[in-house]
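Re: the pair you flagged

First of the two:
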Amino acid sequence: STAPVLDMFASVLFACAATVAPGKAPSPVLAAASAIVTPLLKPIYKVEAPLQAQALTLGNADLDSEIAEIRATATANPVVVYSYPISPFCTEALSVLRSYGCEPTVVEPGYEWFLLGPKGSATRAALQQLTGQSSFPHIFIGGESIGGLYTGTPGLKALVDNGSLVQRLQRARAIPGGARKSFFGVGRN
């Protein structure tokens, strides 16, 4: 039978394909912009986010409930991205994740930080309290905060650059990985 030979050939093809990164890297233009803008805005956001939440909720922001909701969402889904639909950083993070075959759960509290309503501003303040980062995108993989596109612990770009994004996405079951079937349908690891 030629099946074992063909299966071995398919294994070589799978191994070769596994050495090529399946996705794209984040934009170097946005990285340069982030390197300038983020250090300037981070101290402002740190003060502004909780003030905005308190002002828009008339002093009734329940950050403990928001944190519980964030944790529940992050643990119930393989990948969660808190995002603004008009932010180039958010759309780039989503594009990078999707280029790896991941379809994240997207939470959009508003169009942009200055357009948030009471609930969205409370969510943003809760993210800051929970993770230390109020800027978006804010990404959770496998229930764990990785930060944003270029910032965080470690941030999406750092995971792409060090080659660990695929493994983290597979571990979170956001993309296929681990045991696979051979070319002819026989189970293998």
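Second of the two:
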Amino acid sequence: MLAPRKKLWSTPASAIDVALDFAQPLDHNDVVYDVGCGDGRVLIQMASRSIPFSSDGGSSEETNNNSTTSSQQSSPTHHYCKQFIGIEISPERAEAAQSNIRHAQETNQIPSHVSIEIICANALDTDLIDYSRATVIFLYLVPRGLRLIKPIVWPKDDAPGTNDDDQTTSQNDSIIRQKSSKCRRVVTYMSPFEDEEHVRKEFCHVDHQVGAAWPVFLYHIK
């Protein structure tokens, strides 16, 4: 098991707002992955903030680097990202995500220019999942899940014992990031990566636990 399974532990809206703020600036070339997407709520909330890109539309809104809690965010963050991919191992939850996405599209919660794809697969299966496209990755995983996914989303070019396929994937990741002129942004909720320094950390309040505040971490992968 990589991700929490209990419904109570679904990603709260406040954490998604912080994650979206951390991912900025998002442009029309970005591709956002949600690993363990569950019912699709992260994808839907992020996609609902997308606005169409135009060549004279300027850059996306700058984030406030001084914020420390989600309650300090005064307005929703909008962006130009139009490609979202969710990965879910459970066929039932993958179907629920697809159903929720269809409903959000039909009710115009998700703009028509946005594309959301759900891949029903084990997140560790790199034969089925092409992570080289990802410029932003959201992870709400248990600590063991982060340890297992880390070599995939955070490839090390000089890792010992790296085979040719792994080197090709790492090279593809580097090419994608060079084209986007930005580093890959990885956001984790609740648990941090072990032995890695985060760029930002913010606590968000959750409705189902009065007085509680849980951490969101941002990592940059160059």
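Helices lie at 13-23, 41-47, 91-106, 143-153, 164-180.

-B.
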